Predict the structure.
Amino acid sequence: MFPTLSTLSQAFAGCSPLPQRLPDTQSNTFSKWTARQDLYPAWSVTEDAKNKATKLGDAAVAEFEKASHKAQDKAGHIELYSPKYYAACTFGGIMACGLTHTAVTPLDLVKCRRQVDSKMYKGNFEAWGKIGRAEGVRGVFTGWGPTFWGYSVQGGLKYGGYEFFKKFYADLAGEENFDKYKTFIFLAGSASAEFIADIGLCPFEAVKVRMQTTIPPFATGTMNGINTIVAKEGFGGLYKGLYPLWGRQIPYTMMKFASFETIVGMIYNYLPGSKSDYSKAAQTGVSFVGGYAAGILCAIVSHPADVMVSKLNSQRKAGEGSGAAVGRIYKDIGFGGLWNGLPVRIVMIGTLTGLQWMIYDYFKIFMGLPTTGGAPPDDKAKK
């Protein structure tokens, strides 16, 4: 239909004072020294790795979808805010908190010891090196048992309870008032859930802190630690840190859930389109970013109480009241002492919270449920 370049060159050759050169025609023949591109689709290690990663990713997604459909078929349809829904959220919370807290046990170990004695280690790597040389790799994970059991119990009650109480308080406010009071609903729902969750966490937290702050650890495992405390101090010894634990965890969880919901909502408001326009991977990515940002705020708000919990569990005298113990410890360490170990805790809690929300929302997707947050009131208008 259109003239070729050689035809145009011949037609207008006389219009230019410069000699015209016709393009060389490429030969399709190959010499024995010429690499054949059809035999080598990937021309670099990077491209080859990229292709393999893409194939692995596609295979992983396919397996995820297959397992997800199988789980959903087995569980049956899960209606929002039904008992089955709250059970699924509880299980998701167990996975999110139990696994992540156990994974960061080495960080938690150093944090607790530095809170009790700020001069014990100069930094994390020095601490891990000293502990590793003295006790081996197992010593670096001191306290992982009570950490896993305690935070699995707490995570299930916290996430499942939050979904329940959020719906409960939203119904009390009424649909027409939800957008106006949603921040208060998030705060009230998370506080109520954490109040109950800490009752399940407290005995395990007492064992964990004592194992991590005594050298050598006072117990060999979770049940051994519980039995040792009960034998020496009675059942109440497991709960002597409950009030400070509430003081640490309730503000922490209120900030964790309310700020996460707010940040995720802001992200989806900023992005074009609505939440439903984005893939599952993108939604869980938003969950991680929102969770990490919320975790930084959580760490700052709850850190003084976290230091006090560690001090009470390791330094409280027999028969000493909570108020007297708090006053004595504060007199010893001062206001500045309440912030020992904050940088480490910011890294730990930020990463922890981001991973928890990502795992929790991944599990909700796996069970065919919507991810948490990010449904702004004008969502329909954006469509």
